[in-house]
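Per your request, structure below.
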């Protein structure tokens, strides 16, 4: 089936007389006839559900829908995007290992990597995503286990050269992990450009209605773990906690990574989405193509309008001819650059705050990428833990306003922005 059809039907096809919507299986546990039946599940010899901390049918149906949209071989849902970023790395790296990451990533991901995971003994090198291939190569070490970047970075709005990153990762025998939150598979499918693993904060466009925090990981099935078995012993050697199962042998190249993340990391960390939240995500994905088209059209028009406004110092939107990322966006995001636009109000930090206070329709929210327009000043909110040098490295200037353009009527949006800019 094609993309728009999969948004509605992938992951769940009801049988005769069955509910037309994905059923919400609101149950912690599942019943079995014999202990032997259940024992097979614990040894990973049979597949089935026993406890929702590890797996739940509603979550799995929704994960299968997202898997189809990204073109992957296996997928899992998590309770947040943060959990997805953490699991995606911790599934293949442990104390003593090293990761190379783009420096223009979401502030929460930066803190997770640079502070919390560093305390766990995993070192990160942050590189400018626009660096040369030689600079990228030089960041790798013998103990590097993955390369990480964001398709469209939140909030810097840099566009990742996925092919460049994939070449570097594969030259060093490691997978490329791409956070595809802002683009969604409606605008870019990173696997088509060589990425191996995709992560999401489903909290954003995939849910689309600011209803439920969630995350997801999708595996392309393209990375050959056994060809680099010495780097990934967790996938290629027996796991004693499951009677000596070797994930790559039992679940193959397409299933090993996600199975390990579910049966080890979900078991131990319990970052499980509620079935109700998984259901909300599945419902949101049904209208993803319609919403993304409107977000992109509105944002493109708003960005062009802002560019001509006398009180606006600069506008960053990769869909604007002349934007630093215009060419990369033409290649990787031909259908649009999502709804997020950033710009500077003339007069710096104080002017930006006055502008935001004057908005009537757009709400100030620590959120982006949902149906209703919202706006944020990252330097005083999501990125406030960073010093000025780190802010600059992350592509966030003190006057930056991040505008998440919703799917309201365009004239109403522009009228609101116009009256607020008048008050600056
Ligand atoms: C929001 C966000 C995250 C974190 O997701 P949560 O669902 O808030 O935990 C990760 N990456 C990107 C690009 C994000 O925008």
């Amino acid at each position: 089936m094609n993309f728009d059809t999969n948004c509605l039907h992938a992951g769940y096809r009801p049988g005769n007389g069955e509910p037309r919507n994905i059923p919400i299986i609101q149950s912690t546990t599942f019943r079995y006839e014999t202990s032997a039946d259940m024992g097979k599940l614990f040894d990973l010899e049979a597949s089935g559900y026993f406890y929702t901390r590890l797996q739940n049918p509603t979550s799995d149906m929704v994960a299968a829908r997202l898997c189809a949209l990204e073109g992957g071989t296996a997928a899992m849902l998590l309770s947040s995007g943060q959990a997805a970023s953490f699991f995606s790395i911790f599934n293949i790296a442990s104390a003593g290992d090293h990761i190379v990451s783009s420096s223009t990533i979401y502030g929460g991901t930066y803190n997770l990597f640079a502070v919390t995971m560093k305390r766990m003994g995993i070192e990160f090198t942050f590189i400018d995503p626009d660096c040369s291939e030689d600079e990228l190569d030089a960041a790798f070490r013998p103990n590097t286990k993955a390369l990480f970047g964001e398709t469209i970075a939140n909030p810097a709005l840099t566009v990742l050269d996925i092919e460049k990153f994939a070449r570097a990762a594969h030259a060093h025998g490691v997978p490329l992990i791409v956070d595809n939150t802002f683009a969604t598979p409606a605008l870019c499918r990173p696997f088509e450009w060589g990425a191996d693993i995709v992560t999401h904060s489903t909290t954003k466009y995939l849910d689309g209605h600011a209803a439920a925090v969630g995350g997801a990981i999708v595996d392309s099935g393209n990375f050959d773990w056994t060809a680099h078995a010495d780097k990934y012993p967790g996938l290629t050697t027996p796991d004693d906690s499951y009677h000596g199962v070797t994930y790559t042998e039992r679940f193959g190249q397409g299933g090993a990574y996600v199975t390990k993340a579910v049966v080890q990391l979900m078991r131990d960390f319990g970052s499980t989405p509620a079935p109700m939240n998984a259901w909300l995500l599945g419902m949101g994905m049904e209208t993803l193509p319609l919403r993304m088209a409107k977000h992109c059209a509105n944002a493109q028009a708003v960005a062009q309008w802002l560019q001509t406004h006398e009180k606006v110092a600069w506008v960053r939107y990769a869909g604007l001819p002349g934007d630093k990322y215009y060419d990369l966006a033409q290649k990787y995001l031909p259908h649009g650059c999502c709804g997020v636009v950033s710009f500077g109000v003339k007069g710096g930090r104080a002017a930006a705050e006055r502008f935001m206070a004057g908005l009537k329709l757009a709400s100030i929210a620590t959120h982006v990428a949902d149906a209703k327009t919202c706006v944020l000043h990252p330097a005083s909110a999501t990125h406030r833990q960073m010093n000025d040098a780190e802010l600059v490295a992350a592509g966030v200037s003190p006057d930056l306003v991040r505008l998440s353009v919703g799917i309201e009527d365009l004239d109403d949006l522009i009228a609101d922005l116009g009256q607020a800019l008048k008050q600056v």
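The pocket of pyridoxal-5'-phosphate is lined by residues 80-82, 85, 106, 108-109, 150, 154, 179, 181-182, 201, 203-204, 213, 215 (CB under 6 Å).

Regards,
D.
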